[in-house]
Design goal:
flat; 676 residues
Length: 676
């Protein structure tokens, strides 16, 4: 540090050029040099002596290996930690078991399996609290804080990390204190409290002078780099990211290296250093693809899109934009599912804790009353043996005991009723969560991608990056995306309405042929695109008794599926038959077909929202169409059947009542089946 001051004093010109943030960074970099990594040598030496150790000594070495390797080689760390968990349980070492479970929970967190991470971390925390192990509890507070971070509940995450810091301070564990400070700083950057983030990161660096951990220092530098990037100090951010990247590579922490690469590339891009940014971001794409770091890979594609837009290379920008949208959709869907599963696990955990506290209080109250009754009985029994005059008194006491027991039984029944109410509420909540998950999956996956694609192309056209001819070439793709969004939105709205209370079916007599003709007109573009031949052999007028709006949705979904899964230049045949009570409407295609397992899943009584297969022209779908069709046909008093073989097309039969009497007789038969 003294050397820097002398150099700056000697060269006055450079002192004027260097900005204050850069000067601070240079001081930090010289004040906290990167230490040579001895981690590999330590791991090798531990492995060398592990084979000769047993019992407690082997357990400690296994936990040490799990901790050392969990950021470097997760498969090895997982194997050592699982062995440590089994050994700790075998020899009865709760502290060692808590440490093993902590490592397993963290490995699951790094893999993005948050539900498993929460379960193992929660179990480890319970063991640590039971054994008053504050150091272990401090480490686990960081695990729990990381899970709240993934829920985007940053304030709760900050609270957890601060609790971990306080516990680590009580036991004077420097490494856990530094880790907690870094995590607090990271969460402050997420809620735009940049000055607070900078304060905690600097505290971490200063405290790390004693620990000398390159990994923890690298983490702090990355956080400070995020702050300077957000403030627009791009040169300062680059210096910090470069130093952090160097530390990560020397420590061989590939996950951390991936996190720094796209940040440094973005800083170079924002600073106008396009060539350097392009080289680094292309390397980041190659590195992330090789190591399957999908989140960092999507961010690298996003930055490359912005870079090629600045360079005017529309083809490359469009390619990287498409890759970013695909990866982002995939990550968003997985994140939503995992986040909802994690929230449900945490809710169930809190519910169990509340039930246990309630039962504990009730059991203590019951035990107290029983103990009091027992003491009364013993006291008056001894008194009765000594003084026969008190026999009458004992009679009344026994009567009181019976009353108390009766009250206890009544309380027990009330407790059972309360437990039943809690169970019913839990089931209702699970059903609500399942419904919400289905809506999020449909709206998030099947609508975000096409809309984002349309917006991207329109924005590039409005900005002048696309010629009119190029735009017209993309119009058919945009039209197909908009049709997909419109079809999915209509299905979703119809399904949502059918799930609401007060949804009514309004049957009436109408012409099914007219509904089919209108649906064919609406889907004409889809049939023309694949050059499909449509043969409609229905009679000129086919009257059915049902809700016309529901049957319109049924017809459109079945015809749309026929077009979607047909090959180019195939044919689709439509015909109908009838008897005195029923109309049998059929659609037959020559497309992909279905397996018996797929047919059984679609026609099952339970509601099953499955992921839709892509069509023969890579058409996307929500998986809701056939489920909606099945539900609306049943609401209309009809039936649906499917005949299909893979590669040989599909034939779908829909049975609908011709008159009101046919509908009533079907309802009576359904009620008789329920009563039976």
């Amino acid at each position: 540090m003294f050397l820097i001051i002398l150099i700056l004093q000697h060269n006055h010109i450079k002192c004027r050029i260097v900005s204050r943030p850069i000067l601070l960074i240079l001081v930090l970099l010289f004040a906290f040099p990167i230490l040579g990594s001895t981690q590999g040598a330590n791991v090798d030496s531990i492995k060398a002596v592990l084979a000769t150790k047993e019992g407690k000594e082997r357990l400690d070495l296994l936990n040490l290996l799990g901790t050392e390797l969990r950021e470097i080689s997760q498969s090895e760390a997982f194997s050592y930690s699982m062995e440590a968990d089994s050994l700790a349980e075998k020899i009865g070492d709760p502290s060692g078991q808590s440490r093993a479970l902590e490592n397993i929970g963290w490995i699951y967190y790094r893999r993005g399996q948050w539900r498993q991470s929460f379960e193992f971390s929660e179990k480890a925390y319970d063991i640590a609290i039971q054994n008053n192990d504050k150091l272990q509890a401090a480490r686990l507070m960081n695990n729990m804080g990381a899970l709240y971070y993934e829920q985007q509940d940053y304030q709760m995450a900050i609270n957890q990390f601060k609790k971990g810091y306080d516990l680590a301070t009580q036991v004077q564990d420097l490494s856990t204190r530094i880790r907690s400070l870094n995590n607090v700083a990271l969460n402050f950057t997420q809620i735009d409290q940049l000055d607070s983030a900078l304060l905690y990161a600097r505290r971490s660096i200063k405290m790390n002078e004693e620990a000398g951990s390159p990994y923890l220092t690298s983490f702090a530098h990355r956080v400070i780099g995020d702050v300077y990037l957000a403030k627009g100090n791009y040169d300062s951010a680059q210096l910090l990211y470069e130093n952090s990247l160097k530390m990560a590579r020397e420590q061989n922490v590939k996950s951390f290296e991936a996190g720094v690469l796209h940040r440094l590339g973005n800083a170079l891009l924002l600073d106008g250093k396009l060539k350097e940014a392009e080289e680094l971001l292309l390397y980041s794409v190659e590195f992330c693809e090789k190591n399957v770091f999908l989140d960092e890979l999507s961010k690298s594609h996003r930055h490359l899109t912005s870079l090629y837009e600045k360079q005017g290379d529309i083809q490359k920008a469009f390619f990287h934009q498409s890759r970013y949208l695909d990866l982002n959709n995939q990550l968003q869907n997985q994140t939503n599912r995992d986040r909802l599963a994690l929230l449900q696990n945490m809710f169930q955990s809190n519910l169990k804790e509340s039930e246990l506290e309630l039962l504990k209080a009730q059991n203590e109250n019951q035990a107290y009353r029983l103990e009091t009754s027992r003491r009364y009985i013993i006291f008056f029994a001894i008194t009765a043996a000594l003084i026969g005059v008190l026999v009458v008194r004992m009679y009344f006491l026994n009567k009181n005991v019976r009353m108390i027991n009766s009250d206890l039984l009544a309380q027990q029944r009330r407790i059972e009723e309360q437990n039943l109410v809690l169970e019913n509420q839990s089931v209702q909540l699970k059903e609500m969560n399942n419904t919400k998950n289905k809506l999020f999956s449909i709206l998030g996956h099947d609508m975000r991608g096409p809309i984002a694609q349309v917006k991207s192309v329109v924005d590039m056209f409005l900005a002048g990056h696309l010629e009119k001819e190029e735009f017209e070439e993309l119009l058919h793709v945009l039209s197909r995306d908009i049709d997909s969004v419109n079809f999915t939105l209509n299905n979703t709205l119809k399904w949502s309405m059918s799930q609401m209370e007060g949804f009514h079916v309004n049957p009436a007599l109408f012409d099914l042929r007219e509904v089919v003709d209108n649906a064919l007109l609406l889907l004409q573009a889809s049939f023309k695109e694949k050059k499909l031949a449509v043969f409609n052999h229905m009679e000129q007028k086919v009257e059915v008794y049902a809700d016309q709006d529901l049957i319109d949705v049924v017809v459109r979904n079945i015809l749309n599926n026929a077009a979607k899964f047909s090959n180019f230049e195939d044919s689709v045949t439509i015909f109908s038959e009838r008897d005195p009570e029923w109309v049998y409407w059929c659609v037959q295609d020559q497309g992909l077909g279905m397996t018996e397992e797929q047919i059984n899943l679609i026609l099952s009584d339970s509601y099953s929202l499955t992921r839709s297969r892509q069509g023969t022209n890579k058409e996307k779908g929500s998986g809701l169409g056939l489920q909606l069709t099945k539900e609306f046909i049943r609401k209309s008093g009809g039936k649906i059947s499917i005949e299909s073989h893979p590669g040989h097309g599909t034939k779908i039969w829909v049975q609908l009542p011709r008159t009101e009497s046919s509908l009533d007789s079907q309802a009576i038969r359904g009620q008789e089946e329920v009563n039976a």
